[in-house]
Design a protein that fits this description.
The protein is α+β, with helices and mostly antiparallel strands. The protein has one domain: Pnp Oxidase, Chain A (Roll). Strands 1, 2, 3, 4, 5, 6, 7, 8, 9 and 10 form a ten-stranded antiparallel beta sheet that branches. Helix 4 packs across helix 5. The longest helix has 16 residues. The two termini are 17 Å apart.
Amino acid sequence: MTLHSHIAPFARFGEWFAAAQAEEINDPNAMALATATPDGAPSLRVVLLKAWDERGFMFYTNLDSQKGREIAANPAVHLNLHWKSLQRQVRIGGTAALVPDAEADAYFATRPRESQLGAWASLQSQPLPDRATLETRIAEIAKQFPGDVPRPPRWSGWRVTPQRIEFWQARDGRWHEREVFTRDGDGWRFGLVYP
């Protein structure tokens, strides 16, 4: 493995993500998020990548949701972005930490009003007796906040600081290319793995 600068995997991610935004029809920022349950079972769902930089990859959620509780108990997570039209995927393993309140507030303010109301009304991952209950809660929240909707106290963002980033490109004959960046101090080690 060779040593690369601290920006190498992020430059590659930027190139691939730009290509996905140009080619993928629906949600090029959709990514699978893997966490672990308290008994160690894998837990997987799709979330949306809302921001990224050299500090990590960000998504937002209700902190009392299943994923929020699982991350709080065990911050080791994996992300996977799969772009079928490009025959590419990026696998990211790292540690999640809450973003600062100011960052969460700024992002929340950009969300559509309906999404802001939903963040207040949804008791995410809790049993819902019927759809009408949710709609009633949303209507009540809309009356409570006729103007700007503040960020709910139990809604925030997670930043995944990567320790390993793998770029996978499909090739004929299933001779796929797999390039792996592994964090090494302030830099990254780079290598290939067999398909």
